[in-house]
User: What shape does this take?
Amino acid sequence: MDAPVPVRAPLSLHVPEPPQRPGSEIDFSTLAVPPAGTARRPDTDCPAADMTDLAYDLVRVLDDQGHAVGPWDPVLGPDTLVRGLRAMMTVRAYDERMQRAQRQGKTSFYMKCTGEEAIAVAQGMAVDRSDMLFPTYRQQGLLIARDWPLVDMMCQVFSNAGDRLKGRQMPVFYSSREAGFFSISGNLGTQYSQAVGWAMASAIKGDSRIAAAWIGEGATAEGDFHHALTFASVYRAPVILNLVNNHWAISSFHGIAGGERTTFAARGLGYGIPSLRVDGNDFLAVFAATRWAAERARANLGPTLIELFTYRAAAHSTSDDPAKYRPENAGAHWPLGDPIDRLRQHLIALGIWSEARQEELAREVAEAVQVAGKEAESLGTLDKGPFQSARTMFEDVYKTMPWHLERQRRQAGV
Amino acid sequence: MDAPVPVRAPLSLHVPEPPQRPGSEIDFSTLAVPPAGTARRPDTDCPAADMTDLAYDLVRVLDDQGHAVGPWDPVLGPDTLVRGLRAMMTVRAYDERMQRAQRQGKTSFYMKCTGEEAIAVAQGMAVDRSDMLFPTYRQQGLLIARDWPLVDMMCQVFSNAGDRLKGRQMPVFYSSREAGFFSISGNLGTQYSQAVGWAMASAIKGDSRIAAAWIGEGATAEGDFHHALTFASVYRAPVILNLVNNHWAISSFHGIAGGERTTFAARGLGYGIPSLRVDGNDFLAVFAATRWAAERARANLGPTLIELFTYRAAAHSTSDDPAKYRPENAGAHWPLGDPIDRLRQHLIALGIWSEARQEELAREVAEAVQVAGKEAESLGTLDKGPFQSARTMFEDVYKTMPWHLERQRRQAGV
Amino acid sequence: MTMVQALNAAMDVMLTRSGDVVVLGEDVGYFGGVFRCTDGLQRKHGRDRVFDTPITEAGIMGIAVGMAAYGLRPVAEMQFADYIYPACDQLISEAARLRYRSGGEFTAPVTVRAPYGGGIFGGQTHSQSPEAIFTHVAGLKTVIPSTPYDAKGLLISAIEDDDPVMFFEPKRLYNGPFEGYHDRPVVPWAKHPASEVPDGHYAIPLGKAATVRSGTAVTILAYGTMVHVALAAARDAQVDAEILDLRTLVPVDIEAIEASVRKTGRCVIVHEATRTGGFGAELSALVQEHCFHHLEAPIERVTGWDTPYPHAFEWEYFPGPARIAEALRRVMEE
Amino acid sequence: MTMVQALNAAMDVMLTRSGDVVVLGEDVGYFGGVFRCTDGLQRKHGRDRVFDTPITEAGIMGIAVGMAAYGLRPVAEMQFADYIYPACDQLISEAARLRYRSGGEFTAPVTVRAPYGGGIFGGQTHSQSPEAIFTHVAGLKTVIPSTPYDAKGLLISAIEDDDPVMFFEPKRLYNGPFEGYHDRPVVPWAKHPASEVPDGHYAIPLGKAATVRSGTAVTILAYGTMVHVALAAARDAQVDAEILDLRTLVPVDIEAIEASVRKTGRCVIVHEATRTGGFGAELSALVQEHCFHHLEAPIERVTGWDTPYPHAFEWEYFPGPARIAEALRRVMEE
Ligand SMILES: Cc1ncc(C[n+]2csc(CCOP(=O)(O)OP(=O)(O)O)c2C)c(N)n1
Ligand SMILES: Cc1ncc(C[n+]2csc(CCOP(=O)(O)OP(=O)(O)O)c2C)c(N)n1
Ligand SMILES: [Mg+2]
Ligand SMILES: [Mg+2]
Assistant: This one.
């Protein structure tokens, strides 16, 4: 300003683009994948400032041979492992059936979590049954890990007479107080600060239950993400903040969400929150990281941010066609593999599993899903009904129906 | 979950409290203040990941003896230094007069920036006159550094007939397109993402002007802060994101804003944005850091976050009484001193200044403020007028007045 | 007692009665709020029951909804109603709909307190009356008191209510009633009968209007600050107006409105908010629907102009007694 | 052409005519928008003119306001109108007030496009009609087209307008007109005269309603999807209704409304949004104020119920032709 105004070069805008678009071969070769077992495991009371490296590293337990290696191995018993495998397979079979039902016109919409099953299942198993979960639409695995009846979930998807949500919500926007599964919102991000509020409430009451929340990497751009991290940091809320980086938000890749030059786990560092980056397709790593975070929370050490590094193998939803914006079949090339395959391989490597038992389990799971599907459909589907009474449309807007809704209900003749 | 539900210890909520409250002696002895000149100065094209230490360090140039030391010394000429001193003294004298005018009932409200003068003045001088500034209510120094007429500023404070804002805005919510000073909003935080949008527009148009924005540490909790950092990071926007940590947000201390366990500069790291923490009471350090960030922006290297570490020495506003929530006279004990004193001491140490010249300058400044004050008051004050025509109340809601406002204007009889 | 003290008393009573009540917001803790409404509550009830929050209205609402889902009854202060907009998503998409979308399993009994309205030279960002944005949202209730007595009883009801309640506090009434004559000396609450506020717990039911003046010539529908201004206008215009203080906007007391307008045949609606799409529009539509055949004159709306609230022209903006009186005269001429 | 194509054409024309026009929003870039409204625009106009944004409606609006203050004319898409709430602060406190508070020196000519309305089994978060929240805000204009022809001409006017414009697009009309009979086959736009859309630039002025059916018995005020439903209702009920498609809600075409109601003496207002505090309330109040002495029957509002939009009961919620016809018969009986 003291000199005459200098001549300045023109500026230009940087707009991130994914490395490949439809038509080119998918190529993940530039993705840095550290070997399993190499990430260190700090004590749960480690200050955030002393573990910033873990926000850039990748916690992995299962190696390419299916062995559990390194300090993060949660050392789970066979029963737990098989339960995890079964739950993941159930999620996948459930997704398949529901997607088919949507294609058949039995409901309006569906969303799969293919490739991400380890996240919800392992995390659901790693916390207490009484802890409160604030999911997005891609954590159906939490309900399944908690043995919530498939029929109940399906009734929600069909909006039928058995739907506890009375046909009000779009498919997959489950809610179950009994399952400790918070009502899923259509508005991205809102559950994240709510989970922190719930956790603060638990702390205020001297309760021992903690909260866990999930958000997609795309939705981290919403303000609620920032508010959640701010409140969680300030009041040391007993909450696990999970961030599922599946690399896509409908058609836009993680670079548009701010993942081009840093990791999403790094977001937590700015708030002084211990942050882990975890292989989301590794059942054991996910389980271990979640347990670690839960321990911290239970010891009044505050929140943990966990980035679950994974890949959305399927379409965003039944309304989406990923071939329009990324190479086809991209998920099959994900270098971190398939979570179900990897856990099965581990069980086999442990010598407690076989292809035969795998097939048997697959049959069992398919059967269970089919039985549930039939039962749910017998309670109705969106195209044919039956539904709950239309009168329910006017209920639960308020605890008690005010005069104007009463009047509208009468006008509607229900 | 595989074992029976364990018995868990009760949780408790952590609520941050400042180290002192009214009644106790103020004590800043635990504040870590690195010596001047010790922080390293990376090249402007240094990747964010290679300079994370600077988000926790403190860039300081002026040492206790008033000498400029270390790599961040901007090596300014005497004219620039004296201009900076004069501008800071003008800000302080202006603040005093306007606060007095408020006490006398000539306006409704006023906000001082005592102790923070170096920030707006040095930053205003370190960017080009054509760069666009998105301030908060505590950067009146920007206008003064840009030699914007004091009379114009005062007319705004008085809402009088000379007020270009037509009496619409509360005092201190200046706006001047000509001065490259964006209309200050009453809603905290909103200007931060707007600045990023402005910078993106400049880049889209191949313009060479950059943007700079300011926010208080308290207001960083607003979503706009997060949105600004997200967009700035994704599109490498040519913007300087300044964050004034003056330790207080009305009555709540920086711990309530999330500053208890980390620095505010660290927020930027999570987005991959190079982030500096700077002694905000050190004119030279502020100038140097701002120039560094401006260079980055001009070279299409993207945004920089600068935490300006300072202390709000005065009340939040004329509506506030800090003695209600912090020890009295806290500002006088701020270990990083007073920005005006420190620059004066530097000029004296350089051998280009004296107490006599200082007194002369003080007289000049006082005189200029007084002359401006009289002129502004002659154009009206809030208690007595005159004002612009009441008819202006209906203008500028839209570019052209629609029928309903035209009708209301007639009803109002103006 | 003043309205500030009455609101403080309401929170104190509820904090004492139930360990589930918490008070949160910007500057509400140690300092006791920029309008002093929460003064002393932190000292008395503890830092984890009454606490300062980061400056993020959206964050405060998200946190409050989560706390309410847990089972608490958060009372969240928005420092000014003008700053409530960042919280719109958590209010409209979340608090208002949680009961519905969860089939009744999760609820959000949050009380959102916010000082609203002009008259303190607050300019456009410390003067707004945004109630109409929330009265349009199914699932929210909206309450606005006009006296200390009502303020305490209504705030207690709001906190006890199982649904989210928007509780707008007329800041111009915090320390005294206000008839709209800004150039007359401020009258303290002490001289007003409704400043007699009983100790302890009492509740004023939501959804019930109060007839603050009986009359036969015309019905005035008002709430908050405008109740006092309407009273002054009726007095000054010497019109035998019946004045209803709605107190609750949603659900509104349609019976009281209908009964009064059927009796008087005329209706003037007043509010400080901007006119277009204000709650006055809904009131006008309701009156017209319920009392069409009884109306002898067009329903008049006297409101803030459709502009932001200007600092220097506050009193040109404010729908004062003169403008109401004019409207009264107009409807009486028909 | 369909409404999607017409909107696309409008943006294409404006991107071509002015280097200041930029299009931004979630998924609008490479992919071309979840409803395909921006299909091909990035390829044609470049990545720094048409681009994807992070998922933050508040961020998008803040960025757009900053761009507009620079001098650009951003067209920002909100993926669904239901997701606009996080942007309320930047819209209401910033975009709407910037011209006013800066004494006219800074302006925010942003166009906010958002698909709104129900009828696609979107449940409560893909079906909302939140227009009334914005029609209450001084400084914003609100526009809702009902045909491809209007959509293109109005969107061009919105982008050229020097004030911020909320542009709500009836998503049920994107690919064909809709009379409200969900059980009848979908009719494509091709068969509708207003699907003839000229190439290049043309503008339909904001603030002007269109008379889509002349009649003498009753005036129907409608916009967006409900224009087609109202036409069907009038036909089915065999009532000689005059139907005004308002097209712009603020500023509303009061002259057209007044002229029609004075002629017919009856008025039915229809919208899909929830009833209480909906824009219908303002319309009712205006009609009553402007045409009181001409009204022969109470003004009726036919609207969405005061509940969230329920997934399975979409058609019980939707104010279809049968409900409008009923209202028509009621007002004709008076
Ligand atoms: C507030 C809001 N904005 C936009 C949308 C539309 N939307 C639904 S899902 C989605 C992408 C989310 O991506 P991400 O967070 O990465 O989650 P993922 O689908 O990958 O699990 C978008 C934009 C929404 N539901 N809510
Ligand atoms: C959205 C919004 N919320 C609340 C306020 C009220 N308010 C005005 S200034 C302030 C404190 C801001 O503190 P900080 O950001 O640290 O800035 P400082 O005053 O210290 O410069 C508050 C809460 C506001 N103006 N806008
Ligand atoms: Mg994703
Ligand atoms: Mg501060």
